[in-house]
Write a structure and sequence with these properties.
The protein is an alpha+beta fold. It is 14% helix and 29% strand. The protein has a single domain, classed as Jelly Rolls (Sandwich).
Length: 217
Amino acid sequence: MTQDLFATGAAPQLSGGFIDGRIPFLTMDGIFADPLALREAALALPFSAGTAHYPGRVARFPEGDPSLTEFLRKLVGLVTSEYLPRLPALPGGGRLSRVRGVDTDFAITETHPSELTDTQRAPHTDAVPVFGLVYLNEEPRGGTLFFKPGKDPAAIASGYPRSDEQLEVCGHIEGRFNRLAIYPGFILHSGEIEGEWIEGDDRFSSPRLTQRIAFFF
């Protein structure tokens, strides 16, 4: 690994928007100084099967990498100062105010739409209230879609989740190369997986790669 593989860009651009017109998300473009080097290093990791809802494989960097540790420290600061104050109050009136832990891995989406399980064909929520994602794809590989609760997920006919008669999209984050997205894990969401690439060899030769970051409170 390079000495400072997770170095952040010189002038990343912070922006944001709202999901369903009420829950904020943040984006930061140009998050890494050398995203191509990071992509290459990440793809060289030993990937293995992910959780039941993830349609692909996951891998982790070795523990104790000082560059990664510093990157995660910066992300905790960003979430604390820029994202948490924008979140609405919790049902009991409290607010998320302190990140107590953070974890990260890398994920490849490569499952053919016809091979998805029922769980993978439905949107999901995360086990943490705040989640981060870095899109590491130069080619169009989709961003993240958010959905309003709808029909029984088992009724979804086939393929990856998208707007149709069963699901209503209420938010979208464009998956730009070298973009960090920070969003609420408690709203139904899914990767935006569309196009011919997911049905052919491109899903292996030029896979959709993301870095996933979970924030614990």
